[in-house]
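Ligand: nicotinamide-adenine-dinucleotide. Inputs:
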Amino acid sequence: MGNSKKDLKPKVKKVPLKGMMDNVMEQFNSAANHINLHPNIRKILSITNNEILVNFPVKMDNGDVEVFTGYRVQHNGALGPYKGGLRYHATVDLDAARALAMWMTWKTSLAGLPYGGAKGGIKIDPALYSESELERITRRFTYALADNIGPEHDIPAPDVNTNSQTMAWIADTYMSSRPPAQRSANQHVVTGKPDGSGGLEGRDRATGFGVYLTIKFWADNNDMDLNGKKFIVQGFGNVGYWASHFLEKDGAKLVGVQDAQGGIENQDGLNVEALFKYNHENKGTIINYPDCSPVEKSEFFAIDCDICIPAALGNQITKKNASKIKAKLIAEGANGPTNVEGENILLERGIVIIPDILCNSGGVIGSYYEWLQNRSGEIWHLEEVLDKLRKKLKVSFDKVHDYSESEGVDMRTAAFCIAIKRIEKAYIQRGIFP
Ligand code: NAD
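Predicted complex:
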């Protein structure tokens, strides 16, 4: 008797958030508190707009059919079409895609791009499939996503274990499923395509170049010469390799690398191009590279160095290893590599972190240039692209640096505050429909 409808609702036990979602929400809430974010906008940004889960069958080389699960999470589109990568990895699930999509919203906002944030992928270990199986998996995934992606709606890009070839298959499948007269107007449904198929010269190196640039900007502000400085890289894929390539050109010395198979160290320096060739010839791993010592997974971040670049997966720097880190500067090539507990230890120790949403934003800025070119039918050349990227990243870096100095906050909080304020402004200006 007398129970209100509310009382009759079954009590839902709150399950604590885990993993990367914990991180991104703590980072968001801390910045939102700092800027006193409007409570209504906080509600909107705390949750994702759309979450798409597709199960789709694919015929394997031996004739059997396997069913795969793919995801696309669209976090927020207040500033423009959703934008973010597609990852092929065993750790891909809805929660990971949500967290990564949120980071994309802050990243595109901070970079001043007309995009929202999204992320997705397939729960798969691509090493277990042949090239032609991966092509069929990618094409069928694209077909399953259907109009949930689109050149003016949601534009995927490469991420872990996907590359320009993957993007070419997606573009071709998406364009082939449009009426003939509309096909070429849909080329910008994905970015990170090969140059020759609508790709941007320099998109391959855009993220790693951006990682290098943010390190260089920080070093210049702090009168630090990169020449002779030692750095380590976790993940020697697209981001890790290109960041190493540009740092080595400036005289810095790569002394440790870890990939999914293991780690190596050589305090005299590893030649980046030789290691890249070795990695290419050894099925994408650097293990057993000559003249170095193997490094245990738990000891990798303890390697003696000045700069540490996590460029693999999320949640790698945690309370387990943060106190062992020797570097003075962490440049987050990966998305979400440092968890909140790890970060607190690093900040207490005076270690500076260039946060992911700034550090690796060269990739999405490059993607934006590719998208603009496809839309306008222009073709830009490498030097022009890298020059534009340098100028744009300098603007973002200076904004974050100045905010961090004037507000007395770390660079991550500064980057989040700037990004969230831009979205808040858009909501305040246009109101909430209806
Ligand atoms: P990639 O697939 O080219 O390379 C990933 C590398 O990480 C490989 O060397 C792999 O062996 C290594 N790795 C995987 N699991 C590992 C583990 N458990 N421990 C150590 N190393 C491991 O991927 P990528 O495109 O270079 O992306 C790397 C990171 O950068 C990801 O977090 C991604 O979200 C982020 N990122 C990528 C781009 C881009 O343009 N590609 C843009 C922004 C951010």
